[in-house]
Amino acid sequence: MGLGCSFMKQNLTNGKDVLFTSKGDVLTTRLNEIKHTKNTIYITINYFIF
């Protein structure tokens, strides 16, 4: 039996996305900001048959 936890934090700013179309056009968009936080608590149980 086990117990664990995990924490993840992402912070992205000032990005650029470029899309090339089949007609040869280039479309550009700007990424302003992304903030993502994830907390995880988990329990594990191991059972051996043999």
Detailed description of the structure:
The protein has strands at 2-20, 26-44. It has no helices and two strands. The protein is an all-beta fold. A hairpin with a 5-residue loop joins strand 1 and strand 2. Helices cover 0% and strands 76% of the residues.
Tags for this model:
two-stranded antiparallel sheet; about 0% helix; about 75% strand
Terminal residue distance:
17 Å
Radius of gyration: 21 Å
Subunit organisation of the chains: single chain
Report the portion of residues in β strands: over 45%
Helicity level, as a percent range?
under 10%
Strands ordered across the widest β-sheet: 1-2
Largest sheet: 2 strands, antiparallel
Kindly report the average pLDDT value: 90
List segments where confidence is low: pLDDT < 50 over at least 5 consecutive residues: none
Q: Give me the strand/helix succession.
A: EE
Total of DSSP H or I helical runs spanning 4+ residues:
0
- Total E-strand runs: 2
Which geometry do the CA atoms define? elongated
Which class do the helix and strand fractions yield? mainly beta
Write the layout of secondary structure elements.
Elements: E1 2-20, E2 26-44
Antiparallel strand pairs: 1-2
Task: Provide a brief overview of the structure.
The chain is mainly beta.
